[in-house]
Design brief:
alpha+beta, 60s Ribosomal Protein L30, Chain: A, globular, Enamine deaminase RidA, house cleaning of reactive enamine intermediates, YjgF/YER057c/UK114 family, 5-stranded mixed β-sheet, YjgF/YER057c/UK114, about 25% strand
């Protein structure tokens, strides 16, 4: 991580992380804070593929494009919230996630839900960032 505003930390005062996330993310003073609407697995034409892992790929492409559009990178991300309507293939997801964020990963929350905004949406990821 090459960022002078965001610092990702782990704590020895809680159980070790059970996934790819940091327990604590520190934002330095005078940083600009960004929140983003949740991104889904639609392609650039707005089509939602049926296959879950294709939605994973598209979601991270959408997040990447969103960050680039305002001059940010994955290093600026401080928090990731993930909602899924079906079981996540963690081997595949972690490969994409680690390739996108690297180490250390941002703080993260994962929730399985019964539905998202549209029936076809299987995954939604919301990020927060600072610069």
């Amino acid at each position: 991580m090459n960022n002078n505003v965001v610092v990702r930390l782990d704590s020895s005062k809680v159980s070790r992380a059970v996934g790819n996330y940091s327990h604590v993310t520190k934002i330095e003073p005078n940083a600009t804070f960004y929140t983003f609407s949740g991104q889904i697995g639609a392609d650039l034409d707005g089509n939602l593929p049926e296959e879950f892992n294709q939605q994973v790929d598209n979601t991270f492409l959408n997040i990447s494009n969103l960050l680039k559009s305002i001059g940010l990178t994955p290093d600026n991300v401080i928090k990731v919230n993930i909602w899924s309507t079906e079981e996540i293939d963690w081997d595949y997801f972690d490969k994409v996630y680690n390739g996108f964020f690297g180490k250390p990963s941002p703080s993260m929350t994962v929730a399985y839900v019964t539905a998202l905004g549209l029936e076809e949406i299987k995954l939604e990821i919301e990020i927060w960032a600072a610069k």
